[in-house]
Amino acid sequence: MKRKSHHRSEEQSEARQEHTRAAPKEMPSEPTGEPVAADTAEMEARLRALEEENALLKQQLAEKHNSLLRTMADFDNFRRRTRQEMEEIRRIALEEFLRSLLRVMDNFERALQAAQESRSFEKLLEGVQLTYRQLQSLLREAGVQPIEAVGKPFDPNFHEAVQRVESPEHPDETVLEEVERGYMIQSRVLRPSRVKVVKN
User: Fold this and answer.
1) Lowest-confidence segment of 41-50, 64-73, 99-108, 177-186 by average pLDDT
2) How far is residue 126's CA from residue 145's CA, in Å, rounded to a whole number?
3) Measured distance CA(161)–CA(176) in Å, rounded
4) Distance separating alpha carbons of residues 121 and 124, to the nearest angstrom
5) How far is CA 191 from CA 82, 143, 147, 188, in A?
6) Is 140 helix (H, G, I), strand (E, B) or coil?
7) At what angle do helices 121-141 and 34-118 cross, to 10 degrees?
8) 49: which DSSP letter?
């Protein structure tokens, strides 16, 4: 019995040794560091890309800012030139109008001088009428036209009522008399007509 048991024990020991040889125990491998290095390189590349993108954005922003400053400067120059040109146009127009008015004044002075020398009322009247016609022509050339008022319905856009009067021959709100003539320049009222209006 002892020999059989000893023989079985030897067989089991040989079997364990055979199993050990057939399946060697795996040993844990030591870290090589390659994945960490790869992640670091990737992050550095991404950081460089972000820095380049940031630098590009800063450059574009600076260019936009400079472009805006140039546009504002150009607009200021344009506004200043426009204002100067408008002032020059007004100055030229005013000088032209005043030169025309001086010619009327010259004729008026000649009419007065002629009336004084001749002591003639007709000469004075003739001179005044001539001056009046010249003034009317001057105003027409400047775009100034008188407002028609007498006999027209009262219109507060063109007339200013200074008095209400009774007149059975005329309907209410009719302009009966013009106290002071009104004028238009182009399509705008330069001065309204001051009128008397019928109120029965």
Assistant:
1) 99-108
2) 24
3) 10
4) 5
5) 29, 14, 9, 9
6) helix
7) 170
8) H
Q: Determine phi and psi for 106, rounding to 5 degrees.
A: -60, -45
159 close to 182: Cβ distance less than 8 angstroms: yes
Dump pLDDT digits (tens) for 119-154: 888 888 888 888 899 889 989 988 999 999 999 999
Paired with 198 in beta bridges are 165
Taking CA atoms, 132 is separated from 104, 138, 148, 163, in Å, by 9, 10, 18, 28
If 0-12 CB within 10 Å is exposed, 13-18 middle and 19+ buried, where does residue 190 land? middle
- Provide Rg for the chain, Cα atoms: 55
- Spatial strand order of the sheet with 144-146 comes to 144-146, 183-185, 188-191
193 CA to centre of own chain: 37
pLDDT digits (tens, 9 = 90+) for 41-85: 999 999 999 999 999 999 999 999 999 999 999 999 999 999 999
Place of tokens 């013009």: 178
149 neighbors 183 (Cβ within 8 angstroms) = no
Instruction: Report the SS3 class of residue 189.
Output: strand
Which three-class secondary structure string do you get for 80-111? HHHHHHHHHHHHHHHHHHHHHHHHHHHHHHHH
Structure pTM? 0.57
